[in-house]
Write a structure and sequence with these properties.
single chain, about 425 residues, Rossmann fold, 2 domains, four-stranded parallel beta sheet
């Protein structure tokens, strides 16, 4: 089967679970005998120094999307001019400034992309389809990386005569965050657009239930393939923190609960026998996150805890292995229920236990792999109480981490994920015929 995976790039500025999932799945799918072509949208799909889409052109380049949204002239410009703005070097520069547009501009662009052939970037869709028509690129199935791309399905399906699958992962939080009246307009448009998608693949049972309710998806078109990790990448990691150390690995922003973790950390430092505890936050940031991180640094300085905290922007594979070797426990206390948690699986693959909120997918993963503790969501005091025993008892921490590592290797290795995803894609392709 020739699979075309259309994936929005993040600009390599923060720990992007979406990019990581799609990039790591390509190799085991190829090992199973299938041809996988990753096609980037908006920004290059890069993690560290590696470009995961070197054989593909880039479509809907972020700068061109913005210009076409704002200036009618750019909806008719020749390809040679558009190509200048699709320079990967220029897009990397633009990626570091993602998030600088106004909420209204972001909402209107979201609606335009969902409108697809009727939107302001219609010529980008035409170029994508014409490129896929080429014999070397023509797919047996197209897989959209998230449901915000569902607007593309009608034209891809109709003009290429191929089935279209779509992955479901945390999109409702973004849509709900759009300012009124755009959020409701986006949901209404999306409900119409998903009718042209042949099948959906949710990243967890939890999220399958969420989107079944939000989009009224026929259960026969809904499948689940949980994300996995390359477990052998962490087989050599032996956590050996010199002092009790809490880790955070995700985009360093408020939504991921880094401020909640900082508050819990400050509280822990005041408890007997935990004066030495340290915190390492890694995972990168986008432009708007700088002010948030500065506010956390001011809070830590006021509490006299600045020397005990590190903020790291690196998140490539060697950096993650180095981070996990320094940790006693990992915590990313998401403020909203999340659909999957690759950082948690990576930590467990390295033998690092977790403390996470009892919301979203965390309960589902905890039942599947153990390896950690759940606590009350959005409560710094409850988070501190859950972290304390693992920081105080190195033996308990190591035992939980070892349990989690064994079960992640058994159940969440990326090769198993590839088999589950492939099974879903084959069912979707067969239903199209």
């Amino acid at each position: 089967m020739r699979i075309v995976q259309i994936t929005p790039g993040s600009g390599n500025t923060f720990y992007c679970e979406n990019c990581l999932r799609d990039a790591t799945l390509a190799r085991p799918l190829r090992d199973l005998g299938h041809d996988v072509l990753m096609v980037p949208m908006y920004l290059p799909v890069e993690i560290g120094d590696q470009d995961y889409s070197p054989d593909s052109e880039l479509f809907f380049g972020g700068i061109n999307v913005y210009l076409q949204q704002k200036i009618p002239l750019f909806r008719r410009t020749p390809r040679w001019l558009d190509r200048l703005f699709d320079s990967r070097r220029l897009l990397r520069w633009a990626g570091r400034r993602v998030g600088m547009t106004s909420p209204r501009d972001l909402a209107e662009t979201t609606l335009s992309i969902l409108a697809a052939e009727h939107g302001r970037q219609a010529k980008e869709l035409d170029r994508l389809i014409e490129w896929l028509r080429q014999r070397d690129n023509r797919p047996d199935i197209v897989c959209l990386s998230n449901v915000l791309l569902a607007g593309l399905a009608k034209e891809i399906r109709g003009r290429l005569d191929v089935p279209v699958a779509c992955i479901l992962q945390d999109e409702e939080g973004f849509l709900d965050s759009l300012p009124p009246p755009y959020a409701q307009q986006a949901w209404d448009l999306l409900r119409r657009r998903v009718a042209h998608v042949d099948g959906f693949i949710a990243v967890s049972e939890f999220y399958a239930d969420v989107m079944h309710g939000r989009l009224d998806i026929d259960p026969r078109r809904l499948h689940v393939a949980r994300p996995g990790v390359v477990t052998e990448d962490y087989a050599s990691v032996t956590p050996a923190p010199g002092v009790p150390t809490i880790g955070f690995l995700s985009r360093m922003c408020a939504d991921k609960g880094l401020d909640t973790l900082v508050d819990a950390f400050i509280a822990l430092k005041q408890r007997p026998s935990l004066e030495q505890v340290q915190l390492i936050a890694a995972g990168g940031r986008q432009g708007p996150d700088a002010r948030f991180i500065k506010s956390l640094q001011s809070r830590l300085e006021k509490a006299g805890r600045t020397p005990d905290v590190e903020f790291l922007d690196v998140f490539d594979a060697p950096a993650k292995r180095s981070l996990f070797a320094r940790l006693t426990v990992l915590s990313v206390p998401e403020k909203q229920p999340t659909s999957y948690a690759t950082y948690m699986l990576e930590a467990l693959a390295a033998g690092v236990p977790f403390v996470e909120p009892d919301s979203g997918v965390f309960g589902e993963l905890h039942r599947a792999v153990g390896g950690g503790v759940l606590c009350r969501p959005n409560d710094a005091s409850a988070l501190a109480d859950a972290l304390e025993p693992l920081l105080m008892d190195a033996g308990q921490s190591r035992a939980l981490g070892a349990e989690g590592r064994r079960r992640v290797v058994e159940r969440f290795d990326v090769r198993r994920t590839a088999v589950d995803l492939l099974r879903a894609l084959e069912i979707i392709a067969q239903s199209y015929r």
